[in-house]
Specification:
Blueprint: H1 10-15, H2 20-32, H3 34-41, E1 55-58, E2 64-67, E3 72-73, H4 75-87, E4 91-96, E5 103-107, H5 108-124, E6 132-135, H6 141-153, E7 156-159, H7 166-175, E8 180-184, E9 187-189, E10 192-194, H8 196-209, E11 216-220, E12 234-236, H9 237-242, E13 253-254, E14 258-264, E15 272-277, H10 279-292, E16 300-303, H11 310-322, E17 326-330, H12 341-349, E18 353-356, H13 358-367, H14 370-373, E19 382-386, H15 392-402, E20 408-412, E21 446-449, E22 455-456, E23 460-466, E24 476-477, H16 481-489, E25 496-504, E26 510-515, E27 519-522, E28 525-528, H17 529-537, E29 542-552, E30 556-565, H18 573-586, E31 595-598, H19 612-619, H20 636-643
Parallel strand pairs: 4-17, 6-7, 6-8, 7-14, 8-11, 11-12, 16-17, 16-18, 18-19, 19-20, 30-31
Antiparallel strand pairs: 1-2, 3-13, 4-5, 9-10, 14-15, 15-24, 21-22, 21-23, 23-25, 25-26, 27-28, 29-30
Helix pairs in contact: 2-3, 4-5, 4-6, 4-11, 5-6, 7-8, 10-11, 13-15
The structure holds ligand 6R9.
Length: 649
């Protein structure tokens, strides 16, 4: 296989913070002497009390991860206060509304005022250090204020993506026993309202049945749409912040005090509450933001993710603000009013660094080059991708058409669990290969192992593990440390297992091949097959369901569901539609099944385990090589599944 190599462009190299030599030198130090390396780089944030210990981590036994443990700091202070003396009037957030005629700019001074007020409102209503606050918001500046206000007073935020259903929101409220919720009357996306307050009301109702009582809902008025109001419980944001002071002391937090919980899907059971802590997380988010995006003082930076995902946490809010960057927050969608929106916004705000998902690139590529070329994009210097593997065609289009061969493309591989970039090019240091996330960031030690756990050297294809800790790593699953150990450190003892498959080529470049567990990646969103299955079987006509992914041109993966109905029911198109609606209600629109196949039986082993390998093959319309089916309890079901497959070429 010949791979095209794109050497670092001259102009990119000329201004880059890190060149090849520096990368190699720093990388070597970072893995050979992590205490020294991180001891130095931990100082990039301000500490109320400096740390004397740097790394204290173990992937064995009970698994314990501590960084900078005796230091005291505050994330909100680092993202705001420390910039005010020199850059108080710099724009911290550029907000671009869903409506292309609406935008606004928030300076660091204004950010300070807003965050302090909100922190005081929460304090007034009894929110204390360590309490969990759920944030269920659209992409408006108040979402960032809410995160930073929690950080300021030591409350632990749990941001729930605005596209999740009331059921999903309730599950997350209950899991972390959150009694304070911040939301908005309605969100707006692509010109359409999203009923966030209504969903919150429903979720609170569901949570109450599980004995979790939400005492306050703070509501931002975004659209003025009609909503129900629970007096005593519900509070208007604009009224509350008007009656408190614009100053609030940041709480001195231990480096290992929790900063946030973010729920993410795994291969089994309910989504897990990934817990990140204060010091190490911020150091890592800020440092990766600076070096991976080659961020220079004064750059305008835009990450198109939603704050409901980890990318929004690390690379819209915490990383950029810790670096005193100007971060653009976009309320809308890539195709409204049309597919040229991204590039119009780039021109309008003179964006220098642009970070998005491969699924968006693929869908815009499909719309034709004119939507891109009608803009001039001369401000753009760097392009990034995240969330899923990028196919070389989409990469080339991004590089050639969007970036006009002038911009480096950084394909950043990382996870909710890792807090920040793990395998990624550095623009001035790394020659690029389309489709490869390239090389490890400082301090990251990747390792490939086979299914038996044997370490693979050199060019190889295997399961991706990381053998030692880095500051941005998650510390535990909220409320379930045993699950943390089980999920990440038990498959290959003493190593962090990522769940991803990966190939390393002869140059040592890493190529992520996708999940090797039962996690789907649909348009860059992580979903557990188990979650979709449990949503399906919660429908009264469904007796059993098995869900697998299949290759999808735009989404990366589509959701393919095999559904067995209760005796005596017939699988009709109307029922298909009803099931799609049902899953959307249970989880949210991102989990909408693409294909539903009614199956009288599923292929199971004699011990009753569903053979997903077979189901995947049939969903891919590639059943020539089904492998060994002799262990099936009833090999006959396979013929029926093939005959009725929904992805017939
Ligand atoms: C940041 C984020 C994590 C999973 C991860 C992998 C996939 C992310 C990728 C990528 C190939 C990349 N993934 N970035 N695969 N190339 N550049 O997306 O976090 O939502 O937790 O998803 O996404 O499969 O394991 P998260």
């Amino acid at each position: 296989m010949t791979e095209k190599v794109y050497p670092v462009q001259k102009a990119v190299k000329a201004r880059a913070l890190i060149d090849k030599d520096k990368y190699l030198k720093w990388y070597e130090e970072s893995v050979e002497n992590p205490d020294k390396f991180w001891g130095k780089h931990g100082k990039r944030i301000d500490w109320f009390k400096p740390y004397t210990k740097v790394k204290n981590t173990s992937f064995k036994g009970k698994v314990s991860i501590k960084w900078f443990e005796d230091g005291l700091t505050n994330v909100s202070y680092n993202c705001i206060d420390r910039h005010l003396k020199t850059h108080g009037e710099r724009t911290a957030i550029i907000w671009e509304g869903d409506n292309p005629y609406i935008d606004k700019k928030i300076t660091y001074n204004q950010l300070y005022d807003q965050v302090c007020r909100l922190a005081n409102v929460m304090k007034k209503h009894g929110v204390k250090k360590g309490d969990r606050v759920t944030i269920y918001m659209p992409m408006i500046p108040e979402a960032a204020y809410a995160m930073l206000a929690c950080a300021r007073i030591g409350a632990v935020h749990s941001v729930v993506f605005g596209g999740f259903s009331p059921e999903a929101l309730a599950g997350r409220i209950v899991d972390c026993q959150s009694t304070f919720v911040i939301t908005c009357d309605e969100g707006v996306r692509g010109g359409k309202p999203v009923p966030l307050k209504e969903n919150t009301d429903k979720a609170i109702h569901i949570a109450a049945r599980q004995y979790v009582t939400v005492s306050n809902v703070l509501v931002v008025r975004r659209t003025g749409g009609k909503i129900n109001w629970a007096p005593g419980r519900d509070l208007w944001y604009h009224q509350e912040i008007a009656s408190v002071k614009g100053h609030c002391e940041p709480v001195k937090m231990k480096a290992e005090d929790p900063l946030f919980i973010l729920y993410t899907s795994g291969s089994t059971g309910k989504p897990k509450g990934v817990l990140h802590t204060t010091g190490g997380y911020l150091v890592y988010a800020a440092m990766t933001h600076e070096y991976v995006f080659d961020y220079h003082d004064g750059d305008i930076y835009w990450c198109t993710a939603d704050v409901g995902w980890v990318t929004g946490h690390s690379y819209i809010v915490y990383g950029p603000l810790a670096n005193c960057a100007t971060t653009l927050m976009f309320e809308g969608v890539p195709n409204f009013p049309d597919q040229g929106r991204f590039w119009e916004v780039v021109d309008k705000h003179k964006v220098n660094i642009f970070y998005t998902a491969p699924t968006a690139i693929r869908s815009l590529m499909g719309a034709g080059d004119e939507f891109v070329t009608r803009s001039n994009r001369t401000s753009l210097r760097l392009l990034g991708t995240v969330g899923e593997p990028i196919n070389p065609e989409a990469w080339e289009w991004y590089y050639n058409v969007v970036g006009e061969k002038r911009c480096a493309v950084v394909d950043t591989w990382w996870q909710t669990e890792t807090g920040g970039h793990m395998i990624t090019p550095l623009p001035g240091a790394t020659d690029l290969k389309p489709g490869s996330a390239t090389l490890p960031f400082f301090g990251i030690k990747p390792q490939l192992v086979d299914n038996e756990g044997n370490v693979l050297e050199g060019a190889a294809d295997g399961n991706l593990c990381i053998t030692d800790s880095w500051p941005g790593q998650m510390r535990t699953v909220y409320g379930d440390h045993e699950r943390f150990i089980q999920t990440y450190f038990s498959t290959y003892k003493g190593k962090y297992f990522t769940g991803d498959g990966c190939r390393r080529d002869a140059d040592g470049y890493y190529w992520i091949t996708g999940r090797v567990d039962d996690v789907l990646n649909v348009s860059g969103h992580r979903l557990g097959t188990a979650e979709v299955e449990s949503a399906l079987v919660s429908h009264h006509l469904v007796s059993e369901a098995a869900v697998v992914g299949y290759p999808h041109n735009v989404k990366g993966q589509g959701i393919y569901c095999y559904v067995t109905l209760m005796e005596g029911n017939e699988g009709t198109d109307a029922l298909r539609q009803e099931l799609v609606k049902h899953v959307r209600q249970e989880i949210g629109p991102i989990a909408s099944p693409d294909k539903i196949q009614f199956a009288p039986g599923l292929p199971k082993t004699r011990s009753g385990k569903i053979m997903r390998r077979i189901l995947r093959k049939i969903a891919e319309d590639d059943f020539g090589a089904l492998g060994d089916t002799s262990t099936l309890a009833d090999p006959g079901v396979v013929d029926d599944l093939i005959a009725n497959r929904q992805n017939k070429a």
